Amino acid sequence: MIYLVIGLFVAIAVGAFLRQQNKSTNPENNSQSQSDSEELAPVVVDNESSLDLPDDDSQNEGGFILSARPVTDADTVAGATYSSHAPAGEESPYGLSTEPKKKAQAQSNLLRWCGRAGSIQINNIVVPGPVVYWSNGECATPEPSCIDVTLPIEFPKQGDPLPAEGAESYAAMSPLQRGIYLTWLSGARIQPPLHICYPTIWLYGIERRTIIDKLDLGLCINEAFRLLPLMRWEALTENIITFITWLAIKIWLPDEDLLNFCSRLSVVPEGLLDILLNSYANSMLPLPSSVAFTVARTSKHLHRENDPWLPHSEESLQKFTPIYKELCKGGLILAKPQDILKISYTPNNPSIKLSKKDSETVEVPDFFKNLTVFKPLLDSWEVFLTANKQAEKLPDLSNIEDRPDFEGFIKTLRPEGSELPLLSTLGNLGRLFKFKVSQDIKLTGKERKAIVDTAQVEGWQIVPDLGISGRDYHWDDKILFLELKQGTQLSQNYRVASFMLEFICASVAVDEDRVFEPLRQRINDYFPLTEDDNIRLESQKPLNSPTQYGPDYYGEFLCAWLSDKERKSVRNLLLDVVSFLPEFNNNPEVNSIACEVLKLREDEEIPASELSKSPKEKGRDVLKLMTLLFKNN
Asked: For the whole model, what pTM was predicted?
């Protein structure tokens, strides 16, 4: 026992001597090690996350990526998912390096990603699910979409003029522009953006995430899908479609999602149709009628010069299906071609510079190299178009009973099962009432009142409004029938808003949905409208996009009824509404047209008192003077 005690005493003494010797020979290293242990903050990793440490070989490549749960606080470094191009080594608190250890400095301005499930907090502002990059200070990685949470922001107040100019990056935005951008992001990007710079800068981040980080491809393509219907800038729309095409091929988007996307487009890029057809090639299975319909309807290779570009509708698909199956003997059977189509994508993000070697290229079988295989499909499409054109002809209503039978009238015109607004002409409706119908004869006030009163009793609204005094109506004018609940009275707010939407669309020659829809939504800023009012305005799109009247048509009776001062109020509202669209903002041509049709001096400046009015004030001015025009019903 005494020998054991002596041995322990000797071991302790030798250990103490060796530690003292090491301290005296390496004082600097010892001090540095102690400092490191005191100043380095611990890395917090969510229990559900995994942190894979690299082996010794990977350390020479410059580091690894920390992946934790989505960020919920802009100051929580450990809660972020870092970009693969974030600085590594001594510049990153989580980088590894084979260089001799120096004092670690935690960098707060790394490029971090916040996806759909996370949120960014800037002061007291929380932006949920922004799908963006962010940093806590000037980012070490150049990225124009990066949201620097330390930069000042300012939110617009009611009635404040919104900035008409754009910016090249988030950092270059003014505080007010950042406030507008963050407001758009916090609203889940479901409203049309106010300027092209906002969706452009946001898309820069999507490009970096998919091309550089090579992550979240499914998320990014879904977010691009959601953004597309809100775009009213043709160039940006084409960029988004090109991006979706490249990404859809890269991840081989499922057929159902692909068909859903193609149904939104008039012309579908060749690569998308190639991957759609590839699923059935060499399978000996006939091409489904939905796929065949989409290919025939949207392929620029199969489109014939005189054929119309048709929008997608389930009704048209049902009409096409029996024709296709009959002429193609059950369906077209395709073999996979030997030709390959290479599709490359050049990012618009100026911070992404790809060499030719690193350029993103995807390959798909080229089904459209030999168009002879599609001849049976083209024959089916031609027969369908001919039958569809004949069906569009309005039926002869001269054999309808003497009494105004709206039920029979609607049943005659409306396709079975259709819920779309019914499009007809005043002439067809006039024959129902046994009026004298002629292209050379205008409708009288008595005839219009009889039509409107009967329609309301039967539960229908006629668009355009037939009760505007001084407006000329002709029997060949197109009209819409919208269902109207019994006893519903259309408000003056709605009636004036509907008329102004007509006038505005005619003045700027609206012929695309991407322009009509933002204008329809913008009208809400001027007139208090209900949800039902907005549904009615949206339904009148077939009459306003494209419009059936020119601006002169409206100008003639507005000049007859309104004074110069009143017409100026109409002009001011028109210019204010369209200024929200970049292509019409401060456009002298729009002002010239408005002044010409309203007989106003083009060179006369609008007083500052008028310019400072809020949209609701301008709406009240127009509502007050326009109400007098709606006195026939």
From this structure: 0.50
